[in-house]
Amino acid sequence: EKDEAQNVFFMMNHISFMDAFMWPRLAPFRIAARCKTLMDGSFFNTPIIGTCARAFGIFPVLFKGSTVGDF
């Protein structure tokens, strides 16, 4: 299938936390299954969210500090 050989890049600006849950349900499965997600690395330190993030293959984004815009 031609679709599977192509790369997919999808960027979402979060309006709310619901979009993270709605996107996988609304996207075609053949695309959503190949997408990888980025998440703030500090969430990886929480027991439930961190465990789920690792299990789903989410990539941590590590920031230098907690100040907005300090990358």
List keywords for this structure.
mainly alpha, 71 residues, two-stranded parallel ribbon
Plain-language structure description:
By secondary structure, this protein is mainly alpha-helical. The protein is built from 4 helices and 2 strands. The chain has helices spanning 2-5, 18-26, 29-32, 47-55, and strands at residues 38-40, 59-61. The mean pLDDT is 76.
Architecture blueprint of SSEs:
Layout: H1 2-5, H2 18-26, H3 29-32, E1 38-40, H4 47-55, E2 59-61
Parallel strand pairs: 1-2
State the separation between the terminal residues, measured CA to CA.
40 Å
Shape: globular
Order of helices and strands: HHHEHE
Counting helices, strands and paired strands, the structural category is mainly alpha
Secondary structure tally, helices:
4
Nearest-integer average pLDDT? 76
Which sequence of strands runs across the widest sheet? Answer: 1-2
Rg is: 14 Å
**Amount of helix:** 25-40%
How is the biggest beta sheet arranged? Answer: 2 strands, parallel
Low-pLDDT residue spans: none
DSSP strand tally:
2
Strand content: 5-15%
Give a nutshell description of this structure.
The chain is 37% helix and 8% strand.
